[in-house]
Design a protein that fits this description.
By secondary structure, the chain is an all-alpha fold. The chain contains ten helices and no strands. Pfam families: TetR_C_43, TetR_N.
């Protein structure tokens, strides 16, 4: 009598409507985290996404899971946009510039406060998205340096600190209208990154390790 062999079955693929609901939840959450902060009620996110509370909790068992998905989706999206620019133009500084402006569109600075003490910065999904983004941007910077486009005294940390500061909304409703100046000021910053350098920067370059220890 032969021995029975187990048949491995693939996990069923999510239905298209389920995927759309998940995408709507993540998009609504990103908008509301930017507008109202990381503690916005999940039922308000569900209402904006046009789904029921149960659908939110079926996809994201807690707030941390939803916040993590929002952060990962933002990092993945700006990475894809920068990669596309590099593939189309071959210009590393242009790809770097696109990354900076795409980060502003995603309001990365407004999402930084979600990285609270309770946020799991070492979750595998978050690490994978972060490592991909860091590797990509550092590659742009190295190629731009080698091409003589990027001044040699700046590092990845300098770039991310500036993006975080320039894209974080100021407190108070009276400051909301300054958002229209963000891309203008980011372009001034990018022009300051170009080689040859017109000044000597004080202190030392902010590295990736400096950011992780901050």
């Amino acid at each position: 009598m032969g021995t029975a062999t187990s048949v491995q079955r693939k996990a069923p693929r999510p239905r298209a409507d389920a995927l759309r609901n998940r995408e709507r939840i993540v998009a609504a959450a990103r908008e509301m985290f930017v507008e109202l902060g990381a503690e916005v009620p999940l039922d308000e996110i569900a209402r904006r996404a046009g789904v029921g509370n149960a659908t939110v909790y079926r996809n994201f068992p807690d707030r941390d899971a939803l916040q993590r998905e929002v952060v990962c989706s933002v990092m993945d999206r700006v990475s894809r946009q920068a990669e596309q620019v590099l593939a189309e133009s071959g210009d590393a500084f242009e790809a770097l510039s696109r990354f900076v402006h795409a980060s502003a569109d995603e309001r990365i600075g407004a999402l930084c406060p979600m990285m609270s003490e309770t946020f799991d910065r070492h979750h595998p999904d978050l690490l994978a998205s972060r490592n991909q983004l860091e590797s990509l941007v550092e590659g742009f910077m190295e190629r731009a340096r080698e091409a003589g486009q990027l001044r040699p005294d700046v590092a990845f940390g300098d770039l991310m600190v500036a993006i975080g500061q320039l894209t974080r909304p100021l407190p108070g409703t009276a400051c909301l209208n300054i958002d229209r100046f963000v891309h203008r000021h980011l372009q001034l910053f990018l022009d300051g990154l170009r080689a040859p350098a017109r000044s000597e920067l004080p202190g030392t370059a902010a590295t990736l390790e400096d950011l992780r220890q901050a």
